[in-house]
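User: Show me sequence and structure for the first protein, then do the same for the second.

Assistant: Starting with the first protein.
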Amino acid sequence: MFKPIVTQHVTLEKVRDIVNKNQRQTLENVLNKMNMKNFGLNYQPQIEDCGKRFALETGKVLVICANMTDNPHAFVGDYFYQESRREALDMRQLADRVSWILRNLGNDENEKSINFFVDWVVEQRRPEHRRPPFIFIIRDGLSEGQFAMACKEELEAIHIGCKEYDPGYRPRFLLIVGTKRHFKKFFIENGPRLTNSANLPPGSVIDQQVVRADLTEFYMQPHVPLKGTGKAIEYAVLENEVDINMDELQAFLMSLSYSHQIVNIATSLTAPVYQAHELAKRGKNNFIAFRKFYRDAVPERELSLPAQQPIRIVDYRGVTHLLAYWGNGTTILSHRFTA
């Protein structure tokens, strides 16, 4: 059995800057990363009182590809490969991953025959939270024309994953799409001149007048813009089976924006989405490096074409099996390796 070894790279130049230039913030960031990679948690954000019903620490909410570790506030994840330039996810792989996430939470007897390491880790998890009644899905990067695809195809794949884990498991779903790919910018008027305007204060939410009437939509800016005009995240609620109201949802998303762990300020994107971006970059870089140094080992399959000879193309599911951290589907992710 292969066990991954997590490392933290710190350059000698960075060490010299920390010591000679007294860069305490850099030192704190490095220590925070090391703590996360050693199964630690640097802090736990507090949700507003209006959102306590869906607080992560209750164990009632599973944020897809996020809180599957022993602490509900520790976010980890993985990636899988599919054909490029496709916003639609591979439904089969998505269903498999949902079952895998739920197995990470549970302590089912029928899973104890996998191997000793899996048994040990599973027993340390959150067996009391293994079937959360609510599953929140935060989707990023979709245009309005793809909303129907997310509701029908992707949500259905997640339903299938839940049924494959346990046919009697019937969670309720919340599907949200958040994006920065819009052209709306908000600012505060401090006078008659445009030069007197200022960015929105952190924690600002806009859910009236400028939002759509045909669906639940709002804009949220949890972070402090470091440069230029801040851009609020546009959120659209596509499915709400949990009967969450706007105050509860906004409080929940705001608390997720403070869950970065390496820095203790809010990020514009929520922590699960931020981690998804980092994992996608990690997966892309790993594939590029693998193809460069081991080109002959890249899995391939035949693709039949009408009235033509079949061609060889990359077998992305084989690449997932080879390069993703979940391996053959039995690997347990217990800490964040992208810190």
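Switching to the second protein now.
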Amino acid sequence: MEGRRSLEGQIAKRTNRAGKGLKIGGQCRERGRNGTFEWSIQSFLLKPLCSDPLSIHPRLFSCISTSVPLSVPDIILSFCLSLSLLLPPNLRGQSTSDYVVPNPIASVSVCASASACFFFFFFISILSSFQSDHLHLQAIMLSSRGCVGRIHVLGRAAARMAYSSSASPASSGLNFEFTPEQIALRDSVRKFVTDEIIPVAAQYDKTMEYPWPIIKKAHSLGFLNGVVPEKYGGVGLDAVSDVLICEEVAYGCSGMATAVTGNDLAETPVLIGGSEEIKKKFLGRMIEEPLVASYAVTEPCAGSDVAGIKMKCEKKGDEYILNGSKMWITNAGHANWFFVLARSDPDPKTPAGKAFTAFAVEGDSPGLTRGRKEINMGQRCSDTRGITFEDVRVPASHVVGAPGEGFKIAMKTFDKTRPIVAAVASGLAERCLDVATQYSLERKAFGTEIANFQGVAFMLAEMAMQIEMARYMTYKSAYWVDTGRPGSFFASIAKLFASDTANMAATNCVQVFGGAGFNTEYPAEKLMRDAKIFQIYEGTSQIQRVVIARQMLARLKEQGFY
């Protein structure tokens, strides 16, 4: 049946004249004796219009409302729509085969009126084509963040819509809203970042000085040591609130965020396995004054392979003697104390879960030597050093957990801290999107802002999309921590995806800047240098894939699939 052919095919192939009749999509025949013409317009076109003219072509009206340019078939359809809108009211609901135009003069009048309507729709389509580029770009960016020199695009605008709404949760059970307390916390951190971090971040990157003034200010405002419970003097933030702080600080400078989050990494294993004595001694002091601590696990020959640690500990009386070295330790040059992992069982055949013991070691312990500050590619204000232990004596009371359980504690720590790394990576990615968007609206080429070019707009859209997904995974992994569920699977996914997103966003940011992105006078190159470390520390992106795969297979095995 011809009426079931494609809409565009019907109009393109069958709009013509036959004798004295007008043929639109179907047959038209002269009825002869009374000189009238019968229009047999296909039911797929006019019949819906008899009852609801707006049902003919939803795309036509969506194009007009959203300024999407109409295609040629759309314009032709608009003529048919205009024509159909002139049908007599008494014919609505009747079969189109019964619609008879009384005489040729009437048909000419109908066509003239329809043409006027057609040109209205045609004008709208032309106007929308001029507006489309700007409106498409506006769909992915541009709402003020209230900060001088920066704009607030989809990465954060969408977050406000999704998480800051006062609407009640949907009946589906999902709730994508922050609490009022979390919103207030985020806004206060955001102001701190705008006022204190962004103005000095580039200078700290050049001088590579440790940002003590920022650390002290953050401590005075309660932005450090969020994981420390109230019973030890802290505020006991939930994991979601903690990642909000880290994300905002990283927006200003990820190097400073790494310095800030280094405390969380050192404090978390103490919270997991430490005795009450250790918790009060080492965590309480972090609240009383602005101090930093370090997580010392990585060694020169043991990075991803934590089980390959060579540092030894030997028990003598009520003390342990530590010998060995650590490498790439964040905050090592300024740490008040260290969380340290050492091999307590010399037998190489002993499983990792029983071969290592963890300690809380005072930073001023005799025999502990801090190496020189490493000059890294990015995050240069963060302090990274090696540490040497030569007969360092540690009281047995400073063992974190039971002897031999250090490896398990260290791995459980990552389940809680990888969401923090994901948050820092997401914050940097959001900054990349903002500065790239701002530059694309200022830089002109070929007579217009480069944001109007599809090649640039697509990069911005890709960044916005990936950032939103990274943030959702970050919050979900933090939520998993708050609910006490096993979190390795989601923590690794969040860390992996956010790390890769940060590097993609940084690369696109430099590309949008072009030659300026390769110059130190612009922020893009710093963002690119800062981003790379996310794919390396706290488990490389390859290790995250190993963890994810193992978790998947273990789950399938539990369910009896193999």
